[in-house]
Every structure is written in C-alpha cells, then in structure tokens.
Amino acid sequence: MRTRILEELLDTVRENGYHERSKELFAGAGIIVCNRKTFGYDSDIFVISKHAAEISSIIFRLRDLCQEKLDYLNKYEFYGRLAKNANNYIENHGDDLGVISSIIEEAIRIMYFTGL
C-alpha cells in the first residue's frame, strides 16, 4: 500500500517537479538537513543543500507515510539511508531538485526490501 503511494508520488514529482518547501528543516534520527554546515554530533549525517527546504519537506512527508512502521531502532536506518542517498545524488549529479526523486526512490527500495 505505502509502496504504491510512493510510486504515485514519484510519478507526480517526475512529471510536475517538486515545489513544496518546509518552513522547518528536518533534524532528527541522526540526520540534519541544512543549507550550510551547522552544529551536530560527530555521528550525525549532514545533508547540505540549497534545496534544504524541499528535501526537508519530502522527508517530513515520508515520515508521515511510514510513521506507524518506524520505531526507536529502525528509524536510524531509514533516515540514514535517505540522507546518504541524498548526499550521493548531490555529489554525483549536482545540487538540483532531482535529489527529491532520488530520495523517494530510496524510500521505495527500503519499503520493498524491508517490508516497512
């Protein structure tokens, strides 16, 4: 069910782009999304992007879709994989909004292979 919803979201983003921006930047479960380096723990994964508001928005949306399946243990793996995917995309393709599709694709893979 959630995978289908995410696949539909991915199709919409690919067709129309992603224009939602979060007023609050995502920070939690070991990741920090920001537009410049900030303070955090050594173990935090930073996603630094000029599109931090859009990245935060999609991560909040994914959190809401998966909230009932995330717990105090698996949330670090879930958000960590999303952050690592975003950083990999930015490093290999540049800091553009294609990162949103890449994050959704990673969420689909996580759900498919872990049953979240």
List the helices and strands and how they pair.
Layout: H1 2-16, E1 27-28, E2 31-34, E3 45-48, H2 52-66, H3 74-93, H4 98-114
Parallel strand pairs: 2-3
Antiparallel strand pairs: 1-2
Helix pairs in contact: 1-4, 2-4, 3-4
Strand order of the biggest β-sheet: 1-2-3
SS content category: mainly alpha
Percent helix: 55-70%
The total count of helices amounts to 4
Give the DSSP E fraction (strand runs of 2 or more residues).
5-15%
- Overall mean pLDDT: 94
State the separation between the terminal residues, measured CA to CA: 10 Å
Output the helix-strand order: HEEEHHH
The biggest sheet, with number of strands, parallel, antiparallel or mixed sense and barrel status, is:
3 strands, mixed
Instruction: State the shape.
Output: globular
What is the CA-atom radius of gyration, in angstroms?
13 Å
Number of extended strands: 3
The count of domains is 1
- Give the low-pLDDT segments: none
Keywords:
116 residues, mainly alpha, three-stranded mixed β-sheet, 3 strands, globular
How would you explain this protein's 3D organization?
The protein is mainly alpha-helical and 116 residues long. The protein has one domain. It has 4 helices and 3 strands. Strands 1-2-3 form a 3-stranded mixed sheet, with helices on one face. A hairpin with a 2-residue loop joins strand 1 and strand 2.
In short:
By secondary structure, this protein is mainly α. Helices cover 58% and strands 9% of the residues.
